[in-house]
TrEMBL record:
The keyword Hydrolase applies. Residues 1-21 form the signal peptide. Belongs to the glycosyl hydrolase 12 (cellulase H) family. Pfam families: CBM_2, Glyco_hydro_12. Residues 28-137 form the CBM2 domain. This is CBM2 domain-containing protein. Keywords: Carbohydrate metabolism, Glycosidase, Hydrolase, Polysaccharide degradation, Signal. Transmembrane segments: none annotated. InterPro entries: CBD2, CBM2/CBM3_carb-bd_dom_sf, CBM2_carb-bd_dom_sf, ConA-like_dom_sf, GH11/12, GH12.
Length: 388
């Protein structure tokens, strides 16, 4: 049996589910010697809003940052990600996380927040980075360009380069992709992740890997995460949902696998379940459900229990126990690199077997390649999850 554990990547703040409506986008460009700030209201609904903030360093490189601004109409920050945000009356301070403190010349740092408002929600117009007022130019010069009165369209998420440190991660839309190398201790190799940009839902991304060592132990699982992963990171996921609610959780996934020689790996969904609706970072899951679409010389934890037909396809059904939780694996009897599924069909099958209570909550949907050994790439050309 493969011992499986997960990295505890803590969220900057606990995200709560909100209902958004289509809105215009407000953008502020604050100008300052050494820095520029772009503050975008990306979604707004009655009494609440989301904002994305991008800092551009136009001066000397910094190893840590603290961005300050003031709200003019009583807005309050309720949660944040990629930064620690505090507020004292109207004054707001955002400080870097351990993984994003360094900003080189012309480099950027990004974070997001949720907040509340009443009456109006004007965009802040003055920011300071590490105590220096941002004017948008590294040299004193002409009067800064006035703030736009007509909001520009929201751009797609830009592509990233290859990120190869185990601490690297990508935030894109309601998903995030950590360079998860949870089983690499004692192994030899490396892994990289990247995003090909896009609207944030669906997403397009990839990972490359080369690992050697024990062929029966998982080295890494770079995955697109929706929802909980030892904490909450991104807002508006639609999760958690109670299994008994019988909600649709539909997903589309298209990917390409390139293997350099023999490998032990699989490409799979990984879902987590908890007995409570809002688990924290210390709340271990009780159940794990995997859906294997593609495999090469790899087998799930536990033992095979038989087969079942779901979504017009035959699946091997495996059952085991890992760490403190039960694990159920549905392994496609023939490999595919394209799938359209309703995860509800699989959870209902688990419940019908008497293995899991329908009172449990689906808290996370993840998807990516699980690498034991080998070298290659998995490129996702489309990935999307919708909670009905």
């Amino acid at each position: 049996m493969v011992k499986r554990k997960r990295i505890a990547l803590l969220a900057a703040a606990v995200a709560s589910t909100v209902v958004t409506a289509a809105v215009g986008v407000a953008v502020a460009h604050a100008a300052a010697v050494g820095c520029a700030v772009r503050y975008t209201v990306s979604a707004q609904w009655q009494g609440g809003f989301n904002a994305d903030v991008t800092i551009t360093n136009l001066g000397e490189p910094v190893t840590s940052w603290r961005l300050t601004w003031a709200y003019a109409s009583g807005q309050r920050v309720t949660q944040a990600w990629n930064a620690t945000v505090t507020q004292d009356l109207a004054q707001v301070t955002a400080a870097n996380m351990p993984y994003n403190g360094a900003i080189g010349l012309n480099g950027t740092a990004n974070f997001g927040l949720n907040g509340t408002w009443s009456g109006s929600n004007p965009v802040p117009t003055a920011f300071a980075l590490n105590g220096v007022t941002c004017t948008g130019s590294s040299n004193p010069g002409p009067t800064p360009t006035p703030t736009r009165t007509t909001p520009p369209p929201v751009p797609d998420y830009p592509p990233t380069g290859r990120l190869c440190n185990s601490s690297d991660l990508i935030d894109i839309g309601k998903y995030w992709i950590p360079n998860n190398q949870w089983g690499a201790t004692g192994a030899t190799g490396s892994q990289c992740i990247w995003s090909n940009g896009g609207p944030g839902d669906p997403i397009y991304w990839g990972t490359s890997y080369t690992w050697s060592g024990d062929p029966s132990s998982v080295k890494s699982y770079a995955a697109a995460i929706l929802g909980w992963h030892w904490g909450w990171r991104r807002p508006n996921t639609g999760l958690p949902v109670q299994v008994s609610a019988n909600r649709d959780v539909t997903t589309n996934w298209r990917f390409n696998v390139t293997a350099n020689g023999s490998s032990n790996m699989n490409v799979a969904y990984d879902m987590w379940f908890h007995p409570m609706a809002d688990p924290g970072s210390a709340d271990q899951p009780t159940d794990e459900l995997m859906i294997w679409l593609y495999r090469s010389n790899a087998s799930p934890a536990g033992s095979r229990q038989g087969t079942v037909t779901i979504a017009g396809t035959t699946w091997e059904v495996w059952r085991g126990h890992v760490g403190t939780w039960n694990v159920y694996s549905y392994v496609r009897t023939s490999n595919t690199t394209s799938a359209t599924l309703n995860i509800r069909d699989f959870t209902n099958d688990v419940v019908s077997r008497g293995w899991m209570s329908s009172s449990k909550y689906l808290t996370s949907v993840q998807a990516g390649p699980e690498i034991f050994t080998g070298s290659g790439e998995v490129n996702t050309t489309l990935y999307q999850v919708t909670v009905g």
